[in-house]
Design brief:
There is one protein chain. By secondary structure, this protein is an alpha/beta fold. The protein has a single domain (about 1-95), classed as Rossmann fold. It contains 4 helices and 4 strands. The chain has a 4-stranded parallel β-sheet, with helices on both faces. It starts with a strand and ends with a helix.
Length: about 100
């Protein structure tokens, strides 16, 4: 099963990338094929919209979504969750996938 990681980034230290990386390692160790939108790092030329377009494109290649803590407070993660649910994907907190 291919999982997309969704969670907060904007306004957090290091854009919360360490949490995305840790979640990707845990999910991969559990046997999932993982799409970590944080793996691209930070591009100073990108806008929030650019990140969302790339993330949503990647989300469409997945079967489910693993939500990081705080995802409910993130506008981007809420959009990703809504799209995933509308497409019939299973969306669960990270710990439930593990």
């Amino acid at each position: 099963m291919r999982l997309y990681i969704a969670g907060p980034m904007t306004g957090l230290p290091k854009y919360n990338l360490p949490a995305f990386d840790a979640a990707a390692r845990e999910l991969e160790a559990a046997g999932y094929d993982v799409v970590n939108p944080g793996r691209h790092g930070v591009d100073p030329e990108f806008t929030w919209t650019d990140y969302m377009r790339r993330g949503l494109t990647e989300l469409l290649t997945c079967d489910g979504v693993a939500l990081l803590p705080g995802a409910h407070n993130s506008n981007g993660a809420r959009i990703e969750r809504r799209v995933a649910e509308d497409l019939g994907m299973l969306v669960l907190p990270l710990w439930e996938w593990l």
